[in-house]
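Hi W., the cytidine-5'-monophosphate complex you wanted:
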Amino acid sequence: MVPVITIDGPSGTGKGTIAGMVAEQLGWHCLDSGALYRVLGLTAQRRGIDLDAAGTLAELAASLPVTFTSDGRVLLAGEDVSDAIRTEAAGTAASRVAVHGPVRRRLLDWQRQAARPPGLVADGRDMGTVVFPQAQVKIFLDASPETRAMRRYKQLKEKGLDANLANLVEEIRLRDDRDRNRSVAPLKAAEDAFVLDTSPFSIEEVLDRVMKAVDAAM
Ligand code: C5P
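Structure:
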């Protein structure tokens, strides 16, 4: 069986960055499952599909022409949407399409097929609980909404983009509530996950702790 490391947690905990770094250190593949939900949300919005229309969204999920390139870009029918899917609006659309069971079921095989030799590091909300319950190592990264909003605020400012801290805290709380309280695959740590509150740590310090957990488990 292909070894899998799952890294779950709410947005802004640095799990995508950490997943990429762990995958690079091990020479493994990386799956950013959030990007999949973001592309679906973006496509639905562009096509004017109601984000509550579970059946239509599930059909769209089954035929989504998305490609993840080896250099980390996301293509939608050949168009580079790497930046377009990173906006707060795309994150909100992603979390709205992600509440639907039929949508999530359609994306299961797609995600599981990403587990290819020599191994996979998968990040998201339900990687350790639903998509890869047999994963060798499960990590759950957390941080307070204020810490996560501040990280996002700094990222946006560094890019020269407009940002409002209070709005970011509010958006993060709303998205957390939706992700944690949905009936299908809610955001939660797997029972056998290594849980780490990243609030006091830099990315390097988080990576160090995660790699120690990986080494101890494998
Ligand atoms: O991780 P990211 O912030 O890119 O994810 C965007 C949204 O996609 C999340 O807020 C969540 O609602 C949804 N998602 C999910 N399951 C995953 C990954 C993301 O429901 N495995």
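The chain has a mean pLDDT of 95.

W.
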